């Protein structure tokens, strides 16, 4: 299957009908499950992404916000490492959102994300995001008490937050931020395997926490929260992409294809230098060539 069709299959254009049951986390869309086989496709996509990033910076009209969400061990760090490996680090900033700080809890739930938004010409990546406020906080409603919300504001809070997130993303889109959202979907069995791999390999043990087991016990609660989140917040301007991620390299390939396709649609161009500005540059070029000509040919250094 061509990548364009795979991207379309993963994009949630009809969120009202969305069900996880229709999205197999082990789906490969006919792609090989051997990394070596798909590596050339991945390399081609990363090279195109690097070129589009240069155009994004030079064009200067758009920012890109990439939102990564998924259950623990879904592969968010891996996507960042492998998909963004070819881009210029000066034009890409990653923000990982952990538990909110004391200062962040004194503001509304979108405040800390607003501070971290990318500027025009830049790519910003949210490793987890403001969506944690309708995921973790929904599974653990006791966390709401830490947010010191006004009395009575808890009623219909999830519906309100979905609407507020939708309005926030529409505001970003209208003001030149391309929002690309990815849910990395893995199976419970695949999560178990990845947790075991962390425990069995000494250099990965630091990634594991006993709390991961407690959260794993709430698997069904998290899946329900993710499903509701996607139904309520996938929109035309900021659609969700549900990416099967049991096979890591399949996820990398799909995420890179989505980003490349979206950036291509922006019709990014290098600024054209014309008129007096061009004449000035040509004058500089002639002056530099004249200096080189006057200096004569370079002599080879003595050995």
Task: Tell me about this structure.
Helix 1 crosses helix 10, helix 2 packs parallel to helix 10 and helix 3 packs across helix 10. The longest helix has 25 residues. Helices cover 47% and strands 10% of the residues. It is globular, with a radius of gyration of 23 Å. Strands 2-3-1-4-5 form a 5-stranded parallel beta sheet, sandwiched between helices. Helix 4 links the parallel strand 2 and strand 3. The chain is an alpha/beta fold and 303 residues long. It has 11 helices and 5 strands; from the N terminus they run ααβαβαβααβαααβαα. The protein has one domain: 3-Layer(aba) Sandwich (Rossmann fold), CATH 3.40.50.300. The model has no long low-confidence stretch (mean pLDDT 95).
Helicity, as a percent range: 40-55%
Name of the CATH class: Alpha Beta
Q: Tell me the radius of gyration.
A: 23 Å
Based on the structure given, which CATH architecture is correct?
Answer: 3-Layer(aba) Sandwich
Query: How much β-strand is present in the residues?
Result: 5-15%
Determine the CATH superfamily. Answer: P-loop containing nucleotide triphosphate hydrolases
> What structural class do helix, strand and pairing data support?
alpha/beta
- The side-by-side strand order for the widest beta sheet comes to 2-3-1-4-5
Low-confidence stretches: none
User: DSSP helix count?
Assistant: 11
Question: What is the 3D form?
Answer: globular
CATH-defined fold name: Rossmann fold
Q: Whole-number average pLDDT?
A: 95
SSE order, one letter for each helix or strand: HHEHEHEHHEHHHEHH
Intertermini distance: 58 Å
Number of domains: 1
């Amino acid at each position: 299957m061509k990548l364009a069709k795979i991207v379309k299959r993963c994009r949630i254009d009809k969120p009202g009908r969305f069900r996880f049951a229709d999205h197999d986390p082990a789906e490969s869309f006919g792609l090989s499950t051997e990394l070596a086989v798909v590596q050339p496709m991945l390399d081609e996509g990363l090279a195109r992404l690097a070129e589009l990033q240069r155009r994004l910076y030079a064009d200067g009209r758009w920012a890109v916000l990439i939102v990564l969400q998924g259950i623990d061990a879904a592969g968010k760090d891996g996507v960042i490492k492998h998909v963004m490996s070819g881009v210029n680090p000066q034009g890409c900033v990653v923000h990982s959102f952990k538990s909110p700080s004391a200062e962040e809890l004194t503001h509304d739930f979108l405040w800390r994300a607003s501070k971290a938004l990318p500027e025009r010409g830049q790519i910003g990546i949210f490793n987890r995001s403001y969506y944690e406020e309708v995921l973790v906080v929904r599974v653990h409603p006791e966390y709401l008490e830490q947010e010191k919300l006004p009395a009575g504001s808890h009623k219909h809070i999830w519906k309100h937050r979905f609407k507020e997130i939708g309005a926030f993303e529409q505001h970003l889109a209208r003001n030149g931020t391309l929002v690309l959202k990815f849910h990395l979907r893995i199976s419970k069995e695949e999560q178990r395997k990845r947790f075991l791999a962390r425990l069995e390999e000494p250099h990965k043990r630091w990634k594991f926490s006993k709390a991961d087991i407690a959260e794993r016990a709430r698997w069904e609660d998290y899946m329900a929260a993710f499903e509701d989140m996607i139904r309520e917040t996938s929109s035309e301007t900021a659609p969700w992409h549900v990416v099967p991620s049991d096979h890591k390299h399949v996820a990398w390939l799909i995420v890179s294809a989505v980003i490349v396709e979206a950036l291509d649609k922006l019709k990014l161009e290098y600024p054209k230098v014309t008129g007096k500005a061009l004449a000035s540059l040509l004058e500089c070029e002639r002056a530099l060539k004249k200096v080189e000509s006057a200096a004569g040919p370079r002599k080879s250094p003595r050995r």
